[in-house]
Structure formats: C-alpha cells, structure tokens
Specification:
The chain is built from six helices and seven strands; from the N terminus they run βαβααβαβββαβα. It is of the alpha/beta class and 207 residues long. It binds flavin mononucleotide. Its EC number is 1.6.5.-, 1.7.1.17. Belongs to the azoreductase type 1 family. It comes from Pseudomonas solani.
Length: 207
Amino acid sequence: MPRVLLIECSPNEDASPGGQLAREMAERIHANAQITVRNLVREPLLPLCGDYARAVTGRAHREDPALALSEQLIGEVESAHYLVISTPMHNYMVPAALKLWLDYVVRIQRSFTMVDGNKEGLLEDRPTFVVVSSGGNYLGAKASQADFLSPYLRHILGVIGLHHVEFVHLQGLAQGPEVVAETLQQARARLANNPYFAAAPFPGVPA
Ligand SMILES: Cc1cc2nc3c(=O)[nH]c(=O)nc-3n(C[C@H](O)[C@H](O)[C@H](O)COP(=O)(O)O)c2cc1C
C-alpha cells in the first residue's frame, strides 16, 4: 500500500487553503494510500538543545538519545513513498516550524554526507509535492516581493536526496475569499492533469 507523509505547518490549521489542497492531493495519489500526518503546529517540535547540537556536530551514533526525535522524523520520510508539504510563506521564507523540522531531518552522516567537499543526499528520492500559500505575489506579472522559500526548499530537499520536487503556488491569498476560491480552483484544474493525482477527481473539476 502506498504511503504518503503529509507535512503541515500553517498556524491557520484546517482553515489553510494550502492545507486543504495538500490533503486533497495526498488523498488522490492513490485510492488506498495510507496517509501519515505530521502537523508541526498542533504538535510542535522541541527547540534544538545543546545535546542535539553536540550529537550532530560530534557525529554521535544514531542510537544516542539526543538524536531520537531526529531519527523518528527521518524515519517518517524514509517510510513514505510520497511527501506532500503544505507551507505558508512567512517573511519570504518557510515558517519557523518547518525550518525546525528541517534542522532535525537534514543531518550529516544520516540524511546527507560529504563527497569531495560537496553535500550528497543519503535518502532515496521520492516524488515530493510542496504547496506554498502566500498573501502576496512573487511569481508572474503581479510579482512584488522576493521568494526565498521555494529556492531554499528545493535546495535543502536536494541536499538530502529529494530531487523530484514539484511546487504548487497559491499566491495573492490576502486579496480575499473570492481570490482564494479562484486560486484554489485553478490549482485543482492544473493538478487534475498531473498523472500523480489520477485516483479521484478534484472537487469542482470534471473528471
Ligand atoms: C508571520 C507571517 C509572515 C508572513 N509573511 C508573508 C510574506 O513574506 N509574504 C507573503 O506573501 N505573505 C506573507 N504572510 C501571509 C501568509 O503567507 C498568507 O496569509 C497565507 O495565505 C497563509 O497561508 P496558510 O493559511 O496556509 O497559513 C505572512 C503571514 C504571517 C502570519
């Protein structure tokens, strides 16, 4: 049975349009997919502590108790065939909750290693979908701000070996509910043509 890891980090929780779309995507990857949700707001991760920092830089054995949470989060990625990440843009970047998750998952000699001075991923590649929600625009004719989020996420996921990464951009959501509804519907219509999401039609999109 295909397994999907759904990573959520919006403070708006169920009211997040990106969160809603990401759930729809996870449900459509396969009719019988087993979906594991890692909600980084409902269940906040502990801030990094000295023991963790020392275990990482000191290359402690993976059974070191200080690495237990890191091991658990990496294990969740490893056991998933697909990743779906829903993230708001916060100050042009990923929210702090998602950055903290990355600080546990991107770990030297565990999820990446050094080869000739370059970082090389140790995790097996798997299709990874990222839904980005933003109040303003950073792509297209209406772009009016920087985007450090998507290039950063593409880069850091590549560091650990996740290269098949597809982005869905829900922009301009601060313009009100009509724009939110229209943007969501346009995204659903585009995703309906993506063979990964063929298990069921998206709401409001003809099969
Ligand atoms: C702390 C904070 C920082 C934000 N920074 C940005 C930003 O840099 N650019 C932007 O377009 N929107 C920004 N927003 C707006 C959110 O990206 C927008 O409300 C988005 O729709 C939230 O998505 P969500 O409902 O999935 O959390 C920010 C919102 C918050 C709460």
